[in-house]
């Protein structure tokens, strides 16, 4: 598999009328990395057995679109999302989502607001330098120190940006839009970058391209694969 992957990346082909690997196979290494860092398979003595068992159950039972998101979650930047994001399309009524970002802490700016969603849990990440105007528009409080951290519901405030953020959160958790049904509504957790450490670390474990908890970064993982296919 690695030899074929290397061949495809190098621009070769199988020739002789053989099967051609699809373009999206190039994302296979990061999916492997996400799978190894998933709660069910992660090498860590700190994961309780019941949580690990629940994660393994999800990996074996989730429909494919939800399993892919569970392995490689979605990260959306909300503070600078495009003008059409969070607004219904004039023709279809569908809500447009912001473009997803790579799952790396390098993408998180200290003044930003982000949504991290693995299909089972959602996190609203509030940067440590988020301006008061952003906090007021989204959460209806004057300062981020007044934010209630943990499991919560996004407040409904009569301003356009709050409505757009709420629409993105709801669209991201809409499993029917992914072509599958689910009786689970992902809970939403509000997390401050400079707030509760346990909540912050929980959210950061979803950034699978980072090096954390004895796991390698995406760059290191790609280096390992290159060594294996060239060895």
Automatic annotation (TrEMBL):
Residues 97-160 form the Gelsolin-like domain. Its main location: Golgi. Coiled coil: none annotated. It is found in: Golgi apparatus membrane. It is a peripheral membrane protein. Residues 1-68 form the Sec23/Sec24 helical domain. GO terms for cellular component: COPII vesicle coat; endoplasmic reticulum exit site; Golgi membrane. GO terms for biological process: COPII-coated vesicle cargo loading; intracellular protein transport. One of its GO terms (molecular function) is SNARE binding. This is Protein transport protein SEC24.
């Amino acid at each position: 598999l690695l030899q074929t992957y290397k061949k495809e990346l190098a621009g070769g082909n199988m020739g002789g009328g053989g099967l051609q690997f699809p373009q999206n196979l190039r994302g296979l290494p990061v999916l492997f990395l996400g799978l190894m860092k998933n709660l069910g398979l992660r090498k860590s003595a700190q994961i309780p057995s019941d949580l690990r068992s629940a994660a393994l159950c999800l990996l074996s039972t989730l429909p494919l679109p939800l399993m892919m998101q569970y392995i490689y979650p979605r990260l959306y930047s909300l503070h600078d999302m495009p003008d059409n994001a969070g607004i219904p399309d004039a023709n279809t009524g569908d809500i447009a989502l912001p473009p997803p970002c790579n799952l790396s802490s390098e993408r998180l700016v200290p003044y930003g607001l982000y949504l991290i969603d693995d299909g089972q849990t959602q996190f609203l990440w509030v940067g440590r330098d988020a301006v008061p105007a952003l906090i007021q528009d989204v959460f209806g409080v004057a300062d981020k120190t007044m934010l209630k951290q943990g499991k919560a519901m996004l407040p409904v405030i009569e301003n356009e940006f709050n409505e757009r953020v709420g629409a993105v959160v709801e669209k991201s958790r809409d499993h029917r839009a992914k072509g599958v049904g689910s009786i689970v509504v992902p809970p939403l957790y509000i997390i401050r970058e400079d707030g509760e450490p346990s909540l912050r670390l929980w959210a950061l474990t979803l950034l699978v391209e980072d090096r954390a908890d004895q796991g390698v970064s995406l760059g290191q993982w790609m280096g390992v694969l290159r060594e294996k296919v060239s060895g």
